[in-house]
Amino acid sequence: MVGETYAQLQQWGAAERSVLAALAAAPRHAHTHLTYAKLLARNSSRALEAEMWFKRAMTLAPEDPFVRDQFGLFLRDQHRSNEAAEQLTEAARLAPRDAARATAAARALRDARRCRAAERWYAKAAELNPQKGPEGKRPKGRPHTRWKDDIRETTDPHWMQKTEDRTKWNSLEKTFTRRGVLVTSNI
């Protein structure tokens, strides 16, 4: 879309005019509504207007996880943790095989202080993101361990309760690098 190109060039007026023209041409296109909402959201004085456009996009595409995801990120930026958690969790439910969305839902739930639900989504993300070789090929040697197994091995059997202590969990997340291999242990 031309409006997105103008936005990347930081030509905000031209971007807004272009997106509004696209909306006039295709008023039922949810992703155009999202583009306009994101364009408005960059200006804090237009946050309410941006929220209205996000909601219109959700009305047009209620089963689209991308729409929920983008609205959830907007709400998170507005410091509305509970509402962001609801939208990001719904995005993860609509895309049940997407590990990144499951992780985003877990983080949003943790930010909203809903630790039990966050634990479930972190577990789901770990299930969805096992370390494995290329599709259709069995790697030589010992099978790769899963991220969940690495955490369980280096911490204790109750590692999921660590999500309740936000600073400890953040430090644990930062220790896992290079595709889930533990570099140091802070627990």
Q: Can you walk me through this structure?
A:
This protein has 187 residues and is an all-alpha fold. It has two domains: 2-129, Serine Threonine Protein Phosphatase 5, Tetratricopeptide repeat (Alpha Horseshoe); 130-187, no CATH class. It is 64% helix and 2% strand. The protein contains ten helices and two strands. It has helices at residues 2-8, 12-25, 30-41, 47-60, 65-77, 81-94, 99-111, 115-128, 147-154, 166-175; strands at 176-177, 181-182. Strands 1-2 form a two-stranded antiparallel ribbon. Strand 1 and strand 2 form a beta hairpin. Helix 1 runs antiparallel to helix 2 (12-25), helix 3 (30-41) packs parallel to helix 5 and helix 4 (47-60) runs antiparallel to helix 5. The longest helix has 14 residues, at 12-25. 33% of the residues are buried. The model is unreliable at 177-187 (pLDDT under 50).
User: Proportion of β residues?
Assistant: under 5%
Q: Determine Rg (CA atoms, Å).
A: 20 Å
Task: Estimate nothing, just give the exact number of structural domains.
Answer: 2
- Which structural class best describes the helix and strand composition? mainly alpha
- CATH domain class of the largest domain: Mainly Alpha
> Roughly what is the average pLDDT, rounded to an integer?
81
The name of the CATH topology of the largest domain is Serine Threonine Protein Phosphatase 5, Tetratricopeptide repeat
How are the strands of the largest sheet arranged?
A: 1-2
Distance between the termini: 48 Å
Helix content: 55-70%
Number of helices: 10
| Poorly predicted residue ranges | 177-187
Number of strands: 2
CATH H-level superfamily of the largest domain: Tetratricopeptide repeat domain
Compressed to H and E, one letter per element, the order equals HHHHHHHHHHEE
Give a short account of the largest sheet: 2 strands, antiparallel
The best one-word shape is elongated
CATH architecture of the largest domain: Alpha Horseshoe
GO molecular function: mannosyltransferase activity
Protein name: Transmembrane and TPR repeat-containing protein CG4341
Region (Disordered): 126-150
InterPro entries: TMTC_O-mannosyltransferase (IPR052384), TPR-like_helical_dom_sf (IPR011990)
